[in-house]
Amino acid sequence: MQTTQVTTTTSAKPCPRRVTVVAGLIGVALTIVVGFVVARLMVDVPNVRAGTVPDQPFARNYVAYPWPAYLHIAPGLVYLLGALFQLSARFRRHNLALHRRLGRILIGCAAFSVGMAVLIGISHPFGGWSEGAATVVFGLWLLACLAMAFAAVRRRDIVQHRRWMIRAFAVGIGIATIRLWVGLFIALRHVMTSEPPNGPVASTFGLAFWLGLGVNAAIGEWWLRRPAPQRVPVTSGSTD
Prior knowledge:
- The chain has nine helices and two strands.
- The protein has 240 residues and is mainly α.
- A two-stranded antiparallel sheet has the order 1-2.
- α1 (16-50) crosses α2, α1 crosses α8 and α8 (174-193) crosses α9 (202-225).
- The longest helix has 35 residues, at 16-50.
- The protein is globular and about 50 Å long.
- The N and C termini lie close together (6 Å).
- 25% of the residues are buried.
């Protein structure tokens, strides 16, 4: 009687828990973004129509410069919502032609939105030079990611195209993370000084931009560079 061993390898399946957590975090971030846009419209549109100025200093920037603000917000929102479909493997498999057409539109939206953000960051940042510097640095990084993604797909390097688009999305969704940092800083200021948390403080915006965009960029890079799943050995025995 002789026993022979036949060993094969199969890739481990993606962890469903990890996928669920990431999807949930992205859903929360997009909810924050959409909520922010709705809140802005509710404040800005009546004031712009009436020619009035809101009491909150942060809101005054949007009313004073509505065109740059909404030329940044509108295409940026289209990009973030559309990226959900573009990054979905299932959507790509079943709608490849639409994926390609939508991708061109979304890259254009993202590039235009970032360009307006950089213009705002240079000309009239609410949080001063620190916010403006963060906007320029990460805005240029996002544009570079989009350019590299477009170049990769033109040479049919789909793997690198996807990696660069993940980097771009990670930074883009940082607009939601910024709001979380601002809220945290306002709460800490209220606890430490007993002052009422009556709205965003300009001095917190610079640090919030660096942390919100920087942390997101780092998380995106970690996701791309995380160790590959271990290949699980499968051993079968036969007897003759």
